[in-house]
């Protein structure tokens, strides 16, 4: 098998899994409400399960308990005022700190981001509706897909080879361009100002930061994938780390800049 064949050997499996995720994800976003919140809670609970398994693999029961606790806390928080939701969101992290034997600081820091990401996604869908949730998803997906293909076709210098050996500067920068195009088209369709283009690029960067953060945890713990739940993609964290970074970023800066720009 030549180098070119090896480079694209996982493409069919990745595309098949991606198609299933797109169908399930779009259905959840379109329906909204309770089914969407339940889907988000499930994804975040599985993410916490994978995180604990990476950080403290000798405690599978604790991983399951924290996953259930985190997913339940996130689902409950969706139906509470924000002031009451916040301590409930953070409570599982405090429990996990007392349960784990290794990497407790990493667990607390990253699991908080998982919970805030889930809360931000549910808030975006509930407050702004299907269209803006779809915009966020498309920005993240385009960043990932364009970066994947551009990085393999163009190649060039690596972004951070010690942590993410496959990520290139060409794929990273091309992802920003793709996000900018998504922002430009969305601004035209919605009447938002041109600032949405800059926000889309920043969202793209935040999604890449989420990916890099998860890659750093995997390198630190010596694992290749967060799990094997998704054929061709690894685990839930491997697939949704970018969405988590983007969601947390939007949750924070949305309070500063007024989102959507020109429409609030």
UniProtKB/TrEMBL annotation:
Q: Where in the cell is it found?
A: Cell membrane
Which reaction does this enzyme catalyse, per its entry? a 1,2-diacyl-sn-glycero-3-phosphate + CTP + H(+) = a CDP-1,2-diacyl-sn-glycerol + diphosphate
What pathway does the UniProt record associate with this protein?
A: Phospholipid metabolism; CDP-diacylglycerol biosynthesis; CDP-diacylglycerol from sn-glycerol 3-phosphate: step 3/3; Lipid metabolism
Its EC number is 2.7.7.41
Keywords of this entry: Cell membrane, Lipid biosynthesis, Lipid metabolism, Membrane, Nucleotidyltransferase, Phospholipid biosynthesis, Phospholipid metabolism, Transferase, Transmembrane, Transmembrane helix
- Give the enzyme class: transferase
Q: What is its main location?
A: membrane
Q: Do you know which InterPro entries this protein is assigned to?
A: PC_trans
What is one cellular component GO term in this UniProt entry? plasma membrane
Q: Which GO BP terms, alphabetically?
A: CDP-diacylglycerol biosynthetic process
Question: What GO molecular function terms would the record report?
Answer: phosphatidate cytidylyltransferase activity
Pfam families with a match to the protein in the record: CTP_transf_1 (PF01148)
Please indicate if the UniProt record lists Lyase as a keyword: no
Parts of the chain that traverse the membrane? 12-32, 62-86, 106-122, 134-155, 175-199
Organism domain of life: Bacteria
Q: How does it sit in the membrane?
A: Multi-pass membrane protein
Tell me the protein family, please.
Belongs to the CDS family.
Please give the name of this protein.
Phosphatidate cytidylyltransferase
| Organism whose genome encodes this protein | Pseudosulfitobacter pseudonitzschiae
Record gene name: cdsA
């Amino acid at each position: 098998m030549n180098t070119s064949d090896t480079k694209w050997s996982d493409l069919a499996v990745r595309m098949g899994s991606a198609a299933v995720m797109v169908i399930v994800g779009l259905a959840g976003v379109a329906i909204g409400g309770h089914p969407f919140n339940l889907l988000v809670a499930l994804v975040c609970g599985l993410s916490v399960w994978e995180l604990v398994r990476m950080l403290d693999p000798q405690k599978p029961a604790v991983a399951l308990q924290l996953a259930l606790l985190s997913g339940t806390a996130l689902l409950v928080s969706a139906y509470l005022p924000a002031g009451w939701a916040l301590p409930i969101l953070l409570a599982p992290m405090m429990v996990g700190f007392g349960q784990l034997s290794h990497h407790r600081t990493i667990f607390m820091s990253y699991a908080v981001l998982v919970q805030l990401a889930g809360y931000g996604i549910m808030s975006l869908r509930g407050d702004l509706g299907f269209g803006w949730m779809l915009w966020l998803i498309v920005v993240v997906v385009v960043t990932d897909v364009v970066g994947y293909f551009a990085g393999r076709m163009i190649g060039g210098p690596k972004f951070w080879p010690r942590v993410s050996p496959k990520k290139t500067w060409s794929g990273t920068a091309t992802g920003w361009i793709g996000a900018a195009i998504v922002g430009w088209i969305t601004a035209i369709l919605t009447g938002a100002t041109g600032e949405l283009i800059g926000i889309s690029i920043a969202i793209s960067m935040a999604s890449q930061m989420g990916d890099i953060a998860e890659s750093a945890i995997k390198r630190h713990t010596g694992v290749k994938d967060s799990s094997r739940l998704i054929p061709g993609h690894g685990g839930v964290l491997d697939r949704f780390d970018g969405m988590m970074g983007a969601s947390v970023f939007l949750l924070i800066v949305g309070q500063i800049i007024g989102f959507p720009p020109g429409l609030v």
